[in-house]
């Protein structure tokens, strides 16, 4: 767990060892068969005491095994019921108190508790490629090993606030500028640290003990912190951790070190028991779990190998295509971008160049690193012939099956036989698209989310004949583009949009019954969603859904004469969105939608009195009695119908576990991470409660099938509502209570 050795005559080297990331475990696992004799923390403490007791040791270096310092505390430990605690804070103090100089040799990563260990050291040397940070806030915590007290003393309050409240990982070069590390080296970091430790022998350490330093003053500290708190609260949307991080830093500015540490502990414990930390830690592991994909036919990440993508193409330079090209260029994959004519091509090229300029500015090394002016890296064309040598094509044209089929049939003819053909459809049938190609095994859905160069989610949809190699290649490409790939099966809307459908439908039904768009949005945004359904619809454009509903024959010229206005195929239907579209209200792009905007293309949504009176007239025309709908009903009807669909998706094998649905929602649909995703949220509300509410609403609205409880949900409740991790193992079990 930590190795003690002599690095040079007088320098002891303590190497943290706990693969793969040298997490600082503090649990003594006592179950038979998996019994560790020593935790990492215990070993670190023992190493320090041994070095202290050995008169021949004059200095110490702390480093990590396999080129990684440490990723911090073992996150699994925070929710383990079997704790035999050994605090990290006291060990960091022990390091700092050492009379022998201690140098941290930071390679790879020093995160969370790992960086806190380094902050206890008297000097820090980092390899140029190392990254550092205090990402506890991203798992619902704060740095609980005195990091909130030491970091401001070292780098000042503004930089400490930024690092601790965002949790961002910074490169060694930035750490050097901030004063977080003393030196950055390109050579062997441990050797450099041992050399430095040797030089430091006998030098006074007092000035290097951060707990003894004052926090650098700011002329307007109080105002600065209040402003920071207000900003953080606004950004956090109900997540507690960022706010408590600010409070801990504030304590550092107001109280002596020891009192600040006590405050930090108090705040840490609030977070640890808040429920939000549990949700965010679940989300951390869920994201990693979905990388290990499997399909019902037995294909899996274990046996499938990705093929290299040396050159890619994107067809269609609309909003999605532009973002996809940008993502590929950022991932340093040469791209050919194709449009149907020169006019569209030039428009697309200008837009892509603008996006890339902006991205280059945001990146560390600037435009040079992206090299997008080099035609070998990014080429624009109107001729399909340029696609002959690409390894993978992503089609991102208009959502129309006939058009997509025409394109895929051309691609199948032109592209080399081993090329993969991907579609960015958000709902259409992958098998139907694949059917026009001579290589259905190499056809796959890659559903990006807008803006595609920003959003992390990539839904990867396999068809009936998609090969495991194709899935593995798409997943690998997602990783290279720094996206979270989630492998799902083929059905209308896949996972994300399919679950969104009953949610949006309920939102519109609520308007029919008495709510206003801003009531529904507010309730859901207060819950923590980044954006409510009506603001979202205005942003995306109401015409998108209108077109799809026309294609499905739900509205427009193909609707059978005599169809009742509020019924389709025997079930409840709301024509409200269609009526708005007929009036040219497409949302932000037309300056009017569910809200009004300052101008076409405006972004500030204002409740619209026209919409309010339109809704009143609509209710009168359809003899609907307006009623007051409270926040609870808004949340339950929208969220529980979405969750209900999730249970159906699981039962059908469209996703292999609830964590897939949660990762999709957190990364693609603005679901608040501190609520863990919709399925995790359902487990916290309690499956019997969700079932009871769905039953209640379904009885009130028998004409809405989406409110009828899923058979899988009923089964889980009948089986005693097992833990979320066990849901899938109950899918095929018999229940005698049903
Ligand atoms: C009453 C109880 C009181 C307890 C008191 C405790 C004392 C409190 C004092 C200190 C508290 C400190 C807080 C912390 O340190 S919290 C941890 C902060 N660190 C992080 O958030 C880092 C998380 N990890 C990452 O960001 C990445 O994993 C990274 C290290 C950058 C590596 O990324 P990558 O190369 O892409 O690899 P993976 O992400 O796939 O990770 C590889 C496997 O390692 C597992 N992992 C990573 N980090 C941790 C961790 N901190 N704890 C446990 N496991 C970790 C990850 O799950 C992967 O494993 P697998 O493939 O099996 O899922």
Automatic annotation (TrEMBL):
Main localization category: other
InterPro entries named among the record's database cross-references: 3-OHacyl-CoA_DH_CS (IPR006180), 3-OHacyl-CoA_DH_NAD-bd (IPR006176), 3HC_DH_C (IPR006108), 6-PGluconate_DH-like_C_sf (IPR008927), ClpP/crotonase-like_dom_sf (IPR029045), Enoyl-CoA_hyd/isom_CS (IPR018376), Enoyl-CoA_hydra/iso (IPR001753), NAD(P)-bd_dom_sf (IPR036291)
Record carries keyword Transcription: no
Domain 3-hydroxyacyl-CoA dehydrogenase C-terminal: 493-597
Places the protein is found: Peroxisome
Catalytic activity: (3S)-hydroxydecanoyl-CoA + NAD(+) = 3-oxodecanoyl-CoA + NADH + H(+); (3E)-decenoyl-CoA = (2E)-decenoyl-CoA; a (3E)-enoyl-CoA = a 4-saturated (2E)-enoyl-CoA; (3E)-hexenoyl-CoA = (2E)-hexenoyl-CoA
Gene3D superfamilies in UniProt: 1.10.1040.50, 2-enoyl-CoA Hydratase, Chain A, domain 1 (3.90.226.10), NAD(P)-binding Rossmann-like Domain (3.40.50.720)
GO CC, one annotated term: peroxisome
Pfam families for the chain: 3HCDH, 3HCDH_N, ECH_1
Pathway given in the UniProt record: Lipid metabolism; fatty acid beta-oxidation
One Gene Ontology term of the molecular function aspect: delta(3)-delta(2)-enoyl-CoA isomerase activity
GO biological process terms on file: fatty acid beta-oxidation
EC number: 1.1.1.35, 4.2.1.17, 5.3.3.8
Quaternary organization: Monomer.
Family under the similarity heading: In the N-terminal section; belongs to the enoyl-CoA hydratase/isomerase family.
Protein name: Peroxisomal bifunctional enzyme
Organism: Callipepla squamata
């Amino acid at each position: 767990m930590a190795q003690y050795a002599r690095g040079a005559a007088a320098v002891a080297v303590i190497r943290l060892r706990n693969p793969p990331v040298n997490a600082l475990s503090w649990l003594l696992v006592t179950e038979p068969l998996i019994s560790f004799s020593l935790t990492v923390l215990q070993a670190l403490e023992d190493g320090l005491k041994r070095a202290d007791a050995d008169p021949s040791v004059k200095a110490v270096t702390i480093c990590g095994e396999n080129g990684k310092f440490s990723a911090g505390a073992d996150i699994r430990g925070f929710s383990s019921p079997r704790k035999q605690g050994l605090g990290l804070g006291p060990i960091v103090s022990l390091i700092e108190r050492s009379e022998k100089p201690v140098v941290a040799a930071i390679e790879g990563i020093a995160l969370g508790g790992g960086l806190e260990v380094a902050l206890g050291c008297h000097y820090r040397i980092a390899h140029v490629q190392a990254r550092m940070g205090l990402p506890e806030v991203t798992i619902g915590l704060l740095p609980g090993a005195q990091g909130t007290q030491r970091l401001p003393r070292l780098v000042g309050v503004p930089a400490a606030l930024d690092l601790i409240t965002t949790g961002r990982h910074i490169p060694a070069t930035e750490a050097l500028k901030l004063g977080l590390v003393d030196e950055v080296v390109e050579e062997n970091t441990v050797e450099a640290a041992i050399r430095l430790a040797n030089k430091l022998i006998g030098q006074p350490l007092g000035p290097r003990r951060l707990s003894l330093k004052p926090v650098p003053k700011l002329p307007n500290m109080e105002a600065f912190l209040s402003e920071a708190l207000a900003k953080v609260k606004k950004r956090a949307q109900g997540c507690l951790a960022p706010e408590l991080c600010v409070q801990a830093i504030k304590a550092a500015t107001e109280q002596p070190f020891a009192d600040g540490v006590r405050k930090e502990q108090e705040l840490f414990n609030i977070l640890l028991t808040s429920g939000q930390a549990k949700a965010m830690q679940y989300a951390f592991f869920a994201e990693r779990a979905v990388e290990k994909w499997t399909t019902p036919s037995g294909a899996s990440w274990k046996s499938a190998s990705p093929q290299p993508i040396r050159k890619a193409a994107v067809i269609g330079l609309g909003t999605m295509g532009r973002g996809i090209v940008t993502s590929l260029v950022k991932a340093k994959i040469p791209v050919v971008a194709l449009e149907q004519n020169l006019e569209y091509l030039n428009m697309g090229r200008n837009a892509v160049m603008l996006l890339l300029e902006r991205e280059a500015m945001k990146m560390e090394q600037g435009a040079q690193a992206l090299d997008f002016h080099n035609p070998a890296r990014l080429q624009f064309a109107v001729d399909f012939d340029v696609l002959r040598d690409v390894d993978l094509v992503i089609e991102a044209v208009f959502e129309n099956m006939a058009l997509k089929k025409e394109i895929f049939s051309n691609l199948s003819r032109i592209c080399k036989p081993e090329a993969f053909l991907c579609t960015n459809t958000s709902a259409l049938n992958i098998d139907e698209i694949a059917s026009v190609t001579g290589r259905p095994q190499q056809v796959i859905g890659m559903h990006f989310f807008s803006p595609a160069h920003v959003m992390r989610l990539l839904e990867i949809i396999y068809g009936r004949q998609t090969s495991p190699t194709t899935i593995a290649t798409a997943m690998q490409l997602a990783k290279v583009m720094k996206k979270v790939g989630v492998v799902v099966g083929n059905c209308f809307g896949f996972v994300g949009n399919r679950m969104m459908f009953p949610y949006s439908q309920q939102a519109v039904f609520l308007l029919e019954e008495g709510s206003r768009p801003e009531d529904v949005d507010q309730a859901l945004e207060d819950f923590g969603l980044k954006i409510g359904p009506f603001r979202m619809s205005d942003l995306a454009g109401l015409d998108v859904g209108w077109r799809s509903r026309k294609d499905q024959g739900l509205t427009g010229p193909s609707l059978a004469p005599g169809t009742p206005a509020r019924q389709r195929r025997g079930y409840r239907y709301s024509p409200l969105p269609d009526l708005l579209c007929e009036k040219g209200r497409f949302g932000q792009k037309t300056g009017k939608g569910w809200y009004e905007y300052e101008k076409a293309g405006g972004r500030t949504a204002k409740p619209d009195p026209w919409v309010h009176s339109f809704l009143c007239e609509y209710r009168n025309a359809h003899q609907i009695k307006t009623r007051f709908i409270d926040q609870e009903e808004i949340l339950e009807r929208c969220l529980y119908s979405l969750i209900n669909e999730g249970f159906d998706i699981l039962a059908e094998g469209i996703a292999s576990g609830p964590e897939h649905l949660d990762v999709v929602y957190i990364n693609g649909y603005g679901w608040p991470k501190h609520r863990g995703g919709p399925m995790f949220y359902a487990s916290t509300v309690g499956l019997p409660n969700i079932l009871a509410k769905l039953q209640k609403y379904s009885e009130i609205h028998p004409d809405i099938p989406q409110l009828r409880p899923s058979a899988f949900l009923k089964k889980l409740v009948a089986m005693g509502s097992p833990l979320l991790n066990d849901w899938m193992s109950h899918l095929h079990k018999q229940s005698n209570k049903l």
